[in-house]
Amino acid sequence: MAAEGGWRRAGKGRRRRRQGREEDEDGAVLRRLQEARNDLLSSGFWAASAGAVRAPLAGTAEPPARCVCYGLGRFSCCPAARHQLAFLLLLLEELGVPPGRCSVFDPAFSPQEAAALVELGLRLLPDNEEGKHGIEDSGTLFYMVHCGKALYNNLLWRNWSAGALSKMVIIGNSFKGIEERLLSRILERDYSYIAKVLKGTEEVALPAHPQYLDTFNDTSVHWFPLEKLKELSPEVWDCVEEPTYQDCEIIRKGDGAEQDSPAATKS
């Protein structure tokens, strides 16, 4: 992570003064992010969460070689989003995933936030994938705290095979919680891939902490052991129809909100 004071003020002149202000703003974002990291460490929340993070690796899950992050939100002005980003950076350190192998996307990112992410060494995804990201046959961690149900459903559809799913770890909204909150007919109709994979899923919840009740509520680590997936009926794997949604709680590719987003451009 960039150390505090790592940004220099440019020299004199209107352009340099403007650049200096921009660098000060970027530096302020990184300093606040460093403070969020320190908060996570000093509160004990990260230490308490590390066991859940390591749980998949204690079983048969493949250690992630890369990471994809969706839906961070406006971390420059939202403390919850900032703590979620700080948690992600700690997660990468814990799992030994270089920042350059972590791709991020949120259509809400501002130019300032995009610059901060690049400064941290992360990669901006060029397009809104709507969650449809293939694992490319390598262990992949998906960090998707508080994302819409359709995003998880799309991700599962894109990787709908026992071989691919067994290489994935998802940190995001509890699948058990989704099952409990939705009528079974709605879950099976609108989010069929979540419904079909439930019996092949292992899940460990992040611990509750009074300081982060809203930031990480209903968040779990999910993984899909190959032996459990092989126990699912063959019919489960037969339907590979791409999901469609009448009322979708995610921003779709081509929606106006992403047109001017720096997150929709290559880093």
Kindly describe this structure.
This is SRR1L protein. One of its GO terms (cellular component) is nucleus. Residues 60-223 form the SRR1-like domain. Pfam families: SRR1. By secondary structure, the protein is of the alpha/beta class. The protein has one domain (45-237): 3-Layer(aba) Sandwich (Rossmann fold), CATH 3.40.50. It contains eleven helices and seven strands. It has helices spanning 14-43, 45-58, 79-95, 111-119, 149-158, 162-165, 175-181, 184-190, 192-197, 226-230, 235-238; strands at residues 66-70, 102-105, 123-124, 140-144, 168-173, 202-205, 219-223. Helix 1 (14-43) crosses helix 3, helix 1 crosses helix 4 and helix 2 (45-58) crosses helix 3 (79-95). Residues 1-18 and 257-267 have low confidence and may be disordered.
What CATH calls the topology is Rossmann fold
The main sheet orders its strands as 3-2-1-4-5-7-6
Assembly form of the protein: single chain
Which class do the helix and strand fractions yield? alpha/beta
Number of helices: 11
Strand content: 5-15%
Q: What fraction, in percent, of the residue positions are helical?
A: 40-55%
**Cα shape:** globular
CATH architecture: 3-Layer(aba) Sandwich
Keywords:
267 residues, alpha/beta, Rossmann fold, 7-stranded mixed sheet, 11 helices, 12% strand, disordered N terminus, disordered C terminus
